[in-house]
Design goal:
The chain has 85 residues and is an all-alpha fold. It contains five helices and no strands. The protein has one domain.
């Protein structure tokens, strides 16, 4: 069990470093691409999400990308919609 837990933390540490190196533009496109593939939003929904994401700074977008991998995109998107749309 300890070995498995250690491997998971090493994986997420590497994953987090990967997102630390992503630019704001790259994070934005990664998030929008995932949303389009999983939810096929209408043009209006896509524009609203795009406007909201463009208001985030680079660190916030990196954290959002990271959280998509940790918790799943549906959980994060549900939170964004409840709070901001």
């Amino acid at each position: 069990m300890k070995g498995r837990r250690r491997n998971c933390s090493v994986f997420f540490c590497r994953l987090h470093r990967l997102y630390d190196k992503m630019s704001k533009d790259a994070c934005y496109h990664e998030i929008m691409d995932r949303i389009k593939v999983l939810f096929t939003p209408t043009k209006e929904e896509e524009e609203r999400l795009s406007r909201r994401l463009s208001q985030l700074d680079e660190t916030e977008l990196e954290n959002l990308c990271h959280n998509f991998d940790l918790m799943g995109i549906d959980t994060i998107l549900e939170y964004l919609c409840e709070c901001y749309l």
